[in-house]
Write a structure and sequence with these properties.
single chain, 6 helices, two-stranded antiparallel ribbon, nine-stranded mixed sheet
């Protein structure tokens, strides 16, 4: 069972104060901590668990700056066997389609049974790169996967649907699965794992190695264009009424009538 996992280095923004940079198309990241994308962390863990049952190899792939090698090293420390780094400025700044174009070129001709990605990335939340990559590779795919059982040349999977529903289906291998959080409990990276990761190879790939032109990737090869980023406006979300129950009831009824609730 040969598995490839696509990972991404993203900033942690859940508890940080976010500001927009001068371009209006990105955020200031100087004071932010970067780590592996949360969904991708679950994907790496799932790959390791599948390999523990089925045998085989795990290769992690990322597209990003030189600092993205920290993310690859983390995945290697979790148990991946090798890594590929698409490390070229020409790859940067693309939308999901341009990113998938570069990943498809890097993976073309490689033999694998499973290709895993996270459902989405924590920085942009597009949730499109995985499905687009599957279409470019001409392999079946399934999204929002919460359980994977391998049965020969098929995988029996559970998918999260809207409204708390779940779908169970079979998919022919090779296939791409986008992994949802909660599918497992990602392991902590051990000191021994970190030491072993330093000895594992990270193969760097440039755009010339893939036979691509800059017009096929980054912003030039994108099908969408980011016009502007902005923070949600601050507005009043709650109002506390004071007075007797009768007075408060009248105010509530007036609001309901104004908003069309009555």
């Amino acid at each position: 069972m040969n598995i490839i996992v696509c990972v991404k280095r993203v900033p942690e923004t859940s508890e940080a104060e976010i500001t927009i940079d001068k371009s209006g198309k990105d955020i200031h990241t100087e004071d932010l901590v970067f780590d592996i994308n949360e969904w991708d962390n679950y994907a790496v863990e799932e790959a390791v668990r599948i390999r523990e049952k089925e045998g085989g190899t795990i290769t992690v792939v990322t597209l990003g700056s030189q600092e993205s090698q920290d993310t690859l090293r983390r995945a290697l420390a979790m148990g991946a066997d090798g890594a590929i780094h698409l490390n070229d400025p020409s790859f940067l700044g693309g939308d999901p389609y341009a990113t998938a174009q570069a990943l498809q070129a890097a993976l073309k001709g490689k033999l694998f049974d499973l290709l895993l990605t996270g459902v989405q990335a924590g920085d942009d939340g597009y949730a499109q790169t995985g499905p687009i990559l599957a279409e470019l590779l001409n392999i079946p795919h399934a999204t929002m996967v919460t359980k994977v059982d391998i049965d020969g040349k098929k995988a029996r999977i559970h998918r999260e649907l809207e409204g708390g529903l779940e779908e169970v289906c079979e998919i022919e291998l090779p296939a791409l699965l986008t992994i949802q959080t909660g599918i497992n409990e990602p392991r902590y990276v051990s000191i021994m794992g970190i030491r072993k990761a330093k000895q594992k190879e990270i193969r760097e790939v440039l755009i010339k190695d893939l036979g691509l032109s800059p017009e096929q990737v980054s912003a030039a090869g994108s099908l969408t264009e980011l016009k502007e980023l902005f923070l949600p406006p601050t507005c009043k979300v709650a109002e506390i009424f004071k007075g007797s129950p009768d007075d408060v009831s009248i105010k509530v009824i007036d609001i309901l009538k104004e908003k069309g609730g009555l």
